[in-house]
Amino acid sequence: HSAEDRKTRTCRTCHIYNAHQKYKYRAILPLVVLFCLGIGYLCYKPLFNYFQKAMTEADKFASFLINNNQLLMDTESKLVGFVMFAVVMAVFAMTAAGVSLLNYLIFKLKL
Predict the structure, then answer these.
(1) Cα separation of 71 and 62, whole Å?
(2) Could you tell me which of 109, 108, 107 has the C-alpha nearest to residue 20?
(3) Which of 30, 43, 31 lies closest to 89, judged by CA?
(4) Which comes out higher in pLDDT, residue 73 or 37?
(5) Contact indicator for 49, 87 with CB cutoff of 8 Å
(6) How far, in Å, CA of 102 to CA of 32, rounded?
(7) Exposed end of the chain (fewer CB within 10 Å): N or C?
(8) Where are the domains of the chain?
């Protein structure tokens, strides 16, 4: 083991070094959350369009129903709610994964 390796191992167990890692984590954490929110915002419109096309195809398939206009209105309102829920859950999952990755990089790998 070289002197540099010993110094690196010693630094990684130092209280001051670990406090610096906590400050780094606290500084980067809001950026991770904002990044995930931005991804969710950018994905909302394409997801909404995709689900809208899927619902249109489902409406065409179910066109034999008597009151198709009511079905269309019901599916449209449910679609908006579903897409919003899906985007919120995706952003939540991405944020949780991003925070876990940040935690791993800073506190486990000591980057």
Answers:
(1) 9
(2) 107
(3) 43
(4) 37
(5) no
(6) 8
(7) N
(8) 3-108
